[in-house]
Design goal:
- It is globular and about 60 Å long.
- The protein has about 280 residues and is an alpha+beta fold.
- About 45% of the residues lie in helices and about 15% in strands.
- It is built from 10 helices and 9 strands.
C-alpha cells in the first residue's frame, strides 16, 4: 500500500473518531501487505459481544478433541435478558450446542452465550485468548451479570487485539479447520453497522456488540485481491445508539472505499483497464 494513501485513510478515520462524542479507537490491517494503522489501538474497551468470538473458537477447539460435542442437545433452562431470542420463547426448547453457538454469534443471544461459556469453560476461553498472543483481552464474567459489572469485573479487549484475532483466523490459526469453521459461522448473514456499509456481494466474517455507552464491531473482509481486517470501538458514548451505529458504519464505509480502490489499482495508483 502507498504510504501516502495509508496515511490518508488514517487521517480520514481519525477525523471521524475525533468528532465522536465519547472515546473511540480503531485498527485496520492490510492482510496483503501486513501494514496497519490504529488510534488507541491498545486501549482497553469493554468488549461487549466481541468477546463471543473467543468463546466460539474455544468450543471449536474442544470439538476437535471431542467430535460429538457440538451435536449434543441441551435444554434451554436458565434464561437471561438482553440480546437474542431464547429468553423470549415460551415453550421448552432443546438445541444442539452448535446451534446454540450459532445463536450466540448471529443474534448475540445472551442465554446461548452463557450456555457456551459453561460448556467451554471460562478458564479455557482465556487460554484460547492467550493462544492468540493477546495481552489485553480477557473474559471475566458471564452475560448480564450485573453484580460483576458494578464491581468492575468487565470483559475487555482492544481494537488491535480484535484485528490481530481476525488476521490470525485468516492465516489458519489456531488450526486451518477451526479457523475455517469459525469464519464460516461469523459469515452467516445478519445485520450490523459494518455489514450495512460493505456491499452485499463482498463476504465478511464479523461480530458486533453494544452495551450502554459502548459500541464495537470487528470484521474480516474477504475483498478479492485485498482482504483486510477492521475494528472500531467506542466507550463513554454521549449520543444515542442510532448515532453510535452510524459512527461504526462510517468507519467501515470509508475503510472499504480505500481498500476497494487498492484492489483494482496497480502499484502506481492507476485503475486496471476493464474490458467492455
Amino acid at each position: 500500500m502507498s504510504t501516502h494513501f495509508l496515511a490518508r485513510l488514517d487521517r480520514e478515520l481519525t477525523q471521524r473518531a475525533d468528532s465522536f462524542p465519547g472515546v473511540t479507537g480503531f485498527s485496520v490491517r492490510d492482510l496483503t501487505s501486513g501494514e496497519q494503522i490504529s488510534l488507541l489501538g491498545d486501549e482497553a474497551f469493554p468488549s461487549a459481544s466481541t468477546i463471543k468470538i473467543f468463546i466460539l473458537v474455544t468450543l471449536l477447539c474442544r470439538a476437535e478433541q471431542n467430535p460429538g460435542l457440538l451435536q449434543q442437545r441441551l435444554p434451554i433452562e436458565s434464561r437471561v435478558p438482553g440480546s437474542g431470542v431464547l429468553t423470549y420463547l415460551e415453550e421448552p426448547v432443546e438445541l444442539s450446542l452448535l446451534d446454540i453457538a450459532i445463536l450466540m454469534m448471529i443474534v448475540s443471544d445472551n442465554t446461548a452465550t452463557n450456555i457456551c461459556i459453561e460448556q467451554a469453560g471460562m478458564h479455557e476461553v482465556n487460554r484460547t485468548i492467550a493462544g492468540f498472543d493477546l495481552s489485553q483481552t480477557v473474559l471475566r464474567r458471564v452475560m448480564q451479570d450485573s453484580a460483576a459489572i458494578a464491581a468492575g469485573r468487565e470483559n475487555i479487549t482492544t481494537p488491535n487485539d480484535l484485528v490481530a484475532t481476525f488476521a490470525a483466523l485468516h492465516a489458519g490459526k489456531p488450526s486451518p479447520s477451526i479457523a475455517r469453521r469459525a469464519l464460516r459461522i461469523m459469515s452467516k448473514p445478519y445485520s450490523s453497522p459494518f455489514r450495512s456499509a460493505i456491499p452485499e456481494t463482498i463476504e465478511i466474517a464479523h461480530k458486533t456488540g453494544g452495551m450502554p455507552r459502548v459500541r464495537s464491531e470487528a470484521t474480516l473482509v474477504n475483498l478479492p485481491n485485498r482482504p483486510y481486517a477492521l475494528s472500531a470501538m467506542a466507550k463513554y458514548a454521549m449520543n444515542d445508539v442510532a448515532e453510535q451505529d452510524r459512527f461504526l458504519s462510517d468507519m467501515a464505509r470509508i475503510t472499504h472505499q480505500f481498500f476497494a480502490t487498492l484492489a483494482d489499482s496497480n502499484a502506481y495508483g492507476q485503475g486496471f483497464q476493464r474490458s467492455a
